[in-house]
Amino acid sequence: MSNTFTGRRFVAASMVSVAALTVATLAPGPAAAVPPAAPADLGVQQPDTSTAILTWSHVAGAIRYEVQVDDDPNFGSLAAVPSTTNSTVNNTFVPTASLPSGDKYWRVRARGSASEVSDWSIGTFGTPAVTVPQPASPANGAPLAQPSQPPLLTWSSSSGATSYVVEVDGDDDFVGASKYTTSSTSLVVPDPLPSGTVANPADYYWRVTASKGNGINSQPSAAFRFIIGPLPAPTITAPPSSPSFELQDIVLNWNPVPGAMSYDVEVATNSDFTNITETRSGITGTRYSPPVTYDNDQYYWRVRARDLDDQPTPWTASLYDFNRTWPDMPQAVFPAEAGLETVAGPIYFEWTSVRHASEYEVWLSTTPGFSEPTTEKCRTAGTTYTPGMFAVNTNGILSPNRTNEDCEPIPGVPNYWQVRPLDRPFTKSGDLPGIQGIFSEPQGFIYDPLQITGMSPSGGQTVTVPTLSWTASVGAEKYRVVIKDKTGGTVENATTYSTSFTLPGTRVLAPADGPFTWELTATSSDGIQSVTRVASFQVTGLLPPPPASPADYLTPLTGTQTDGPFYDAPALSWRTYPGAARYQVRVGAAMDGPGQIWFGHDSNDLFFSNLPYPAMTDTGERLLLPGDYDWQVIALNSSGTPIAYGPETRMTIAAIPATSEHAAAIGGRELDPSFSGTRTPCVPGEVCIVPTTPVLRWKADPRIAFYMVYVSRDASFTNLLEPSNAIPATTNSMYAPALDNRFWTYPETEAGEALYWFVRPCRNAGNCGPTPVSTIGRAQHFFTKTSPKVTGLKSSDPSGTEITFEWDDYFDTNRSTAWLQTQELRPQSAMQYRIQVDDTESFGTGTDLVDERTVDQPTYTAFDRLYPEGTLYWRVQAIDSKGDSAGNGRLSWSDVKTLKKESPRVVLGSPVNAETVAGTVALRWSPQPFAQEYKVELFRNNDTSFSAANNVFSKTVRTTAYAHSTPLPASQTYVWRVQRIDADGNPGPWSWSGENDANPLGRFTVGTNVMEITSPLPGSMQPPNGPVLTWRSLPGAVKYSVEVTAPGGSLAATAETVATAFAPTSNLVTGTYGWKVTAKDASGNSIGATTSTFTVDAGVRATAAPVISAPAGTGIGATLVSSPPSWNQSNVAETYQWLRDGKTISGATGATYVLTATDYLKAISLRVTGIKPGYVDGETTSNVIGATAGGALQATVQPSITGDAISGGTLRVSPGTWSQPSPTLKYQWLRSGAPIPGATGTTYRVTPEDAGKNIGVTVLASKTGFSDGSANAVAVAIPKLKSTTAATLSATRIKPGTRAKVGITVTVPGVKGPVGVLKIMDRTKVLKTLTLVTAKNGKITFKLPKLKKGKHRILVKYLGDATTEGSRSKALRLSVQP
Questions:
Q1: Are residues 774 and 800 part of one domain?
Q2: Where on the tree of life does the source sit, at the highest rank (predicted)?
Q3: Using an 8 Å Cβ cutoff, are 874 and 853 in contact?
Q4: Kind of pairing, strands 1039-1045 and 1051-1057?
Q5: CA distance linking residue 264 with residue 305, whole number of Å
Q6: pLDDT in the model for residue 613
Q7: Lowest mean pLDDT segment, chosen from 565-569, 700-704, 830-834, 1033-1037
Q8: DSSP classification of residue 742
Q9: In this structure, is the dihedral angle defined by the CA atoms of residues 811, 816, 817 and 823, taken in order, positive or negative?
C-alpha cells in the first residue's frame, strides 16, 4: 500500500547493496539512463488460505518496485490487490484482498530514479478454495411454532469470509429463491413465509454460501429444511352461539391470538356465508361492534387472525349465531281511549318513547287494517306529531303537504293510527331508512276539528231577509254555503271567507218554495273539510218597507264604524228605496273628499253584483285585509238603471290580532287545553330550558286560517332555522317539526344562547300578521335547548392493548330523570354517538385527534387503530335524528374522562443476565398481541441510560428475533431492549424501564481472543525499506487492521488486509516503531489485537553547512557564490535552493545567485538538500548575506515639456527613460528656475503670473536598492499679456482757465487689477505721469491742468510691466475757447 508522509520525501534503495550506489548530485542526466536489473530470487510463502507473501532480492539502482498479480499468464486481467499495479520500496509484497481460488501468476520489476524500468520477473502460486459454511440450526426438518419460533437460521463461519448469502425457497431446487446477504453467521428471515394450514403446513429449504468479496465465493452448503405452522384460530367468547339468544346491541368478542397483528370478521345471514352482511378486515382488537347496527335478523359470524406478515389463520371452525331483535313497542298516549273517542282541535298524536328509536313513523288510516290506499305515513323525531303542517314559500304560496306532513285525519269518520320506532342510521335498499320496530297498538277516534256552531236562522225560523250567519270555526279559512228549496233543488252554492251570507242575484226567495235548508261546511287552509251542518228557514216573501222619511232612504243599518271594528267582511244592510228592483254595493279604501275610488268586481267577490235584498256580505278575501273602507249602496230599477245612491259609509276591518298564550313542552299532552291533569309548560316570562326539541302551542283564534311558525337563533329573526322559501306553517295551534323540515330537531344551545320563536297568524295566504323577520322586539317566546349529557362513562383496563369504552344508553339517561318543568319523561334516544379520544384535554380537530368515531351503540372499541401510550382524554356526545356530516344533530358533550394507557412490556428471551456470547448472537423475545413490528435497540458500554452516543443499532423487525447483519465488537458489555409497535404504528413501552423494573434487562458481553505475532521479534532492527510484519490467523477474523506508529507517535503506515502479513510500501525513518494488528470480524468489529516494536536507522544529516560569499560585493546586481556542505553519508546527491529572508526564491536552484532589486535590504541564504535512496532526505542552510543598494538612477533620455505655452494653456512633461526599469517618479515645476508651490503633477496650467517668464520642470526618480536621481526638462518661455487703454474727457470744449477731467481704463485679460505707469500727453507733451495700482482695478480719473486757448489732442500711454505689454488710447480732441 502506498503511504504519504507530510513534509518528507522517501526514495527507495537496495537493502543489500547500499554501498554500491553511485554518488551523484541531482543535475541534468545523460540522454538515456540505464535501467536497473530485473529482480531475482522470487519466492512465495502461504501460511494460510488468505495469505500470499511474495518476495525478491533488492536490485542495485532501484528506488521502487512494481508488482502485478493475475490468473492469466499474459496478465490481461489483472487482479486488484489492492490495485492492478502495486508500487513499493520493499522487496516483499503481500496482497491485501482475497484472491480467487486457482493458479495465480505474479511479476515484479524494478524502477530507477529516472523512471527507467527493468524487465519483468515472473512467478506462480496457487490459491485454496473458500471453505463451505455448514448449517447449524434449526435442525433439519424442524417445525417452527409461530410466533414464538421465528425462522432464525445459524451456520458455521468460513475462514476469511466477509459475507454470507442465504437462500430460502419453498422447493429444494432453489429456483427463484429469496436471497439475503449478511456479515453475521445468523439470520432471521425478514420476509413473510406463508404458513400453510394445520393439515398442510408449509415447509421451506435453505442453504448458505460464503463470500470473500470480488466474486470469491464458496460452494453452497447442503440444503436444510424447516416447517412453518399457522397461528391458531381465535376462540370466540361472546355472544353465546344460540339462535334463541336475542340481543339489540351487537358486540362480538374473542380471545387474542399470540402473534396476531389484526383480525378479520365476517357476518352473514346464512351459515355458509354466501349472504354476507358485513366484512371487516384489519381489526386491531378482540372486540367488534358495528358502527351501524344490523337489521332484525338471524346472523352467523366468524373471525380469523392475521400474523405480522398479514397472513390469515383459518376462520373459526364452529358456527356462531345470534338473533338481533328489537322488541320495544311504543304506547299510545293520545288519542288512546277505548273505542272511538271524538277528538276536536287541537289534534295531535302522542306516544311513549322506546330505546334505540332515532325517529318514529306514524300511520294514519280510515280503515282499521291500515289498507295502503287509505293510509298516510309520516315520520318525526319526537314523540308528538301535530297534523296540519305545511310550508309557505317566499311568494306566500302554500306548498302541497310534504311527505311527512300529510298525516291529517279525515273529519267526521273513524280514523285509526299507530306508530312504530325507526333505528337509524341503518338503511336498506328500497325501503325507508332505519331498522323498523314494533307498532304500537292501533287506536281509533272520530275527528271533528272545524266544529260549526251558531247557525242562524235555523229550526224553520221565518225571516224577511235571509242573511245566514254562524260562529267562526277554529282553523277554518273559508266556508261553503249551499241553499236548497223544499224539493232539494239547489238555490245557491257559494264559497265565502266571511261568517255570514245573504243570497245575491235578482230573485227574492218565494215562500212557496220553502221551507229552505242551508248547509255549511268549513275548509282549512290545507284543504281539510269539516262535517257539514244543516239548518232550515222560511221566508216571508216580502221586503222591508221604505222608511217614512226620504232622507233615510238607503241609509246603512249595519256595517258602520259604530258596530265595528270587524274581523272579516261584515254583514252590510240598509234601508230600502221605494221602487228599487235590486241593489248594488260598491266598496273602496277610505278616502276623505270627492273622487272616491271604488274596487272593481272580481269573480269571488260581490262588489257591483245584483242584490235582491237590502243586505250583503262580501264573499271574497279583499275585506279580510285590515284597514278603513268606504261603502255605498246603489238602488236600481227593474231594467238595471241606477235610480238612487245611498250615503258613503265608513267601516273598519281590524288588524289580525297577535297570537297569545304561548307555551312549550316535551309532548302535546302537556299543552292540550282539554287535558284535565296538571299542566306546567314553559310560558313567556319563565326561564325555559328544554331537554329536547319541544312541542310549541298557542291559543287558537277562530278567525285565523293558519299560522306560520318562525324559529330563529337570534331575537331579531335574521338567522332562521328554516329557509325563507319554506317557512313552516300549520292549521293547528300546536306544532312539532316533522322530517320534512331542514331542522326537524332543534340544535343544541350549548353556549347558553336561546332559540326564539314567533307564531304569525294568517287569514289566508295573502293576509297575515306582521312578520318577525329582521325586526326588533317581536319574539313571543324563547327557550334554551340543552339535552342531557351522556352519563355512565367507563373504560376497560388501560394496561391492555385495546381500550373498550362504554356509557349509559342515552334512552336510559333521559328516562332516569323527568323534566323538572313539567315532570314529563325525557323521550330522547341517540341515533348515534360521537366519541372523541385525544392526548390533550382541549381535544384537537379532525386528524389532530387520536380517534373520533360515530357509532350507534353505547359501546366502542376501536377496530381500525390502537391508541398511543400515556394519558388519554375521552368524551361522548349523543347525536339525534338530525345528525349529518355537517355536524347537525350533535347534543351536549359528556364530562371528560381520562385514562392512562400502559400496555404490557415486551419480555426478553436471550441473551440476558450478563451472558458472554459471540458477536453474531441473535436477540430473542416473547411475542405480544397486536404487534405490527418490534423496535430493537442495542447500546454499548453497559449504557442503561440508552444514550444516542452509545447506540449500536436501532432496527424495526416483524419477527420476535433479530440477528444483526454485522457481528458485534468484542470486549464490551451491551444492553438491549425491545419495544412493540402496534398495528396502528403506536410505540409501546420499552421492555425495561429502570432499575426497579421486574422485567429482565437485556445485558450481555461479547468475548475476545488473543493474537500471536510471529515476526519481527520485539525491538529488532529493520531496514527502512524492507520490514515484513507477520502473525497467526485468528478464528472468526475476516480481515486485519495494521497500524505502524512512527517514533514521534504519528502513523507511519496503515493497512486493512485479509492476509496474516504486511510489508510497508514506503521508506521508514530512523527510530523505534510500534505496530499493532487487530483482527476484525465481517462487520469490522475487533475480536482480538496485539502489539510489538522494531527499530529503523535511516537518515541523511549534514556535518558541515554550506558557505556563501560575495566576491563582487553585496550591492544589487552582484553575484553570490557557494561551497557545498559535508554529509554523514557517502554518495549523497544534492539539490540547491536560495532563500530570501528564509523563503524560497523562485528559480534560484543553482550554486550561484545574482542579487536583484527585490533582495535589497533582505537576508540571502542557501539551503542544500542531501538525497540518498532508502534514507530520509537531509537539509542544511548556509550563512546569511544582506543585500545593499546599487548606484544612483540616471536618465538615459531627458524629460521634455509639451503643450500650450501661453497664459491659460496646459503644459505636460514626458519623464524620459531611466537606467533602471519602473522607477518611482516625482515632479516639480519651476518658474524662472524657482519651484512653483503645489505644482507637482505631470501637467501644469500656465497662469498670468507666468507671463514673461520661463517655465521648467524637474523629474525625480527613486527605486528600492538604488540612490535617487533627477533630471530637468528644457524650460519654455511664456509671452507677456496684452493690454488695452481707453480714455474719455468730461467735456470736449471748455473755457480758458477751466480744467477738464480725463477718465482712464486699462484692461488686461485674466488680470483684475493691472498695475504700471500711465502718461497723459497733449500731443507729444507729457502733461502728467501717474501710477496705476491694483486697488484701482485698472481705472483712474485725472483733472487736466489749465490749458492754453486753442485746440489740443489728449492721449494716454500705458507703459506695461514685467508681465504685461504697454498700450495707448485714442487721441481725444479738446477745444479751449472763451
A1: no
A2: Bacteria
A3: no
A4: antiparallel
A5: 6
A6: 97
A7: 1033-1037
A8: S
A9: positive
How do residues 291-346 score in pLDDT, each as one tens digit?
A: 999 999 999 999 999 887 788 888 997 778 899 999 999 999 999 999 999 998 89
CB-neighbour burial class of residue 671 (10 A; exposed 0-12, middle 13-18, buried 19+):
buried
Structural domain containing residue 577? 543-655
* Domain of residue 1136, CATH code: 2.60.40
- How far apart CA 1063 and CA 54 sit, in angstroms, is 10
Same domain, 306 and 364: no
**Alpha carbon 219 to chain centroid, angstroms:** 54
Considering the domain boundaries, does residue 7 fall inside one?
Answer: no
Closest by CA position to 322, among listed 291, 301, 304, 293: 301
Burial readout 595-625 (b: 16 or more C-beta within 10 A, e: otherwise)? eeebbeeeeebbbebebbbbbbbbbbbbbbe
Q: Could you tell me if 648 and 663 lie in one domain?
A: no
Percent of the chain with pLDDT over 90: 62
The amino acid sitting at 836 is Q
Last residue of a domain, one of 632, 655, 678: 655
46-68 as b/e: b if 16+ CB within 10 A: ebebbbbbbbbbbbbbbbbbbbb
**554: CATH:** 2.60.40.10
- Length of the chain in terms of residues written: 1378
Q: What is the mean pLDDT of residues 275-281?
A: 95
DSSP 748-807: P-TTS--EEEEEEEEEETTEE----TT-SS---EEEEE-PPPP---EE--TTSSS-EEE-
Residue 762 pLDDT exceeds 90: yes
Look-up: residue for cell 442453504?
207
> d(Cα 381, Cα 364) in Å, to the nearest integer?
17
768 and 851 assigned to the same domain: no
| 668 and 738 fall within a common domain | yes
Does the residue 175 lie in any domain?
Answer: yes
Whether residue 457 is found in the same domain as residue 443: no
Collapse the DSSP code of 512 into the 3-class scheme (helix H, G, I; strand E, B; otherwise coil) and give the result. helix
Cell, residue 1324: 507729444
Does residue 831 sit in the same domain as residue 779?
no
Give the residue carrying C-alpha cell 532563500.
1139
| Helix or strand run (H / E) with residue 11 | none
Cβ(1120)–Cβ(1077) below 8 Å: no
Number of folded domains that form the chain: 11
Peptide bond into 425 cis (omega under 30): yes
Measuring CA to CA, which residue among 1280, 1366, 1369 is closest to residue 1321?
A: 1369
Q: Is the peptide bond before 239 cis (omega within 30 degrees of 0)?
A: yes
Residues 6+ positions from 101 with CB-CB distance below 8 Å: 127, 128, 129, 130, 216
User: Can you read off the three cell numbers belonging to residue 1352?
Assistant: 489740443
Residue 12 lies in a domain: no
> H helices of 573-659, where?
none
Amino acid making up residue 57: S
> What SS3 class is residue 1334?
helix
CA distance to 152, 261, 839, 842, per residue, from 851 (Å): 38, 19, 10, 14
- Residue 1348 placed within a domain: yes
Cβ-proximal residues to 87 (8 Å cutoff; 6+ apart), any chain = 2, 64, 65, 66, 67, 111, 1065
- pLDDT tens digit string along 1048-1057? 999 999 999 9
- Rounded-to-integer distance, Cα 520 and Cα 473, Å: 11
Please indicate, yes or no, whether the overall pTM of this predicted structure exceeds 0.85. Answer: no
Are 869 and 980 in contact by the 8 Å Cβ rule? The answer is no
Residues 875 and 916 in one domain: no
901, 927, 945 - which closes a domain: 901
Distance CA 277, CA 1214 (A): 112
| Cβ atoms of residues 326 and 434 within 8 Å | no
Contact predicate 865/262, CB 8 Å: no
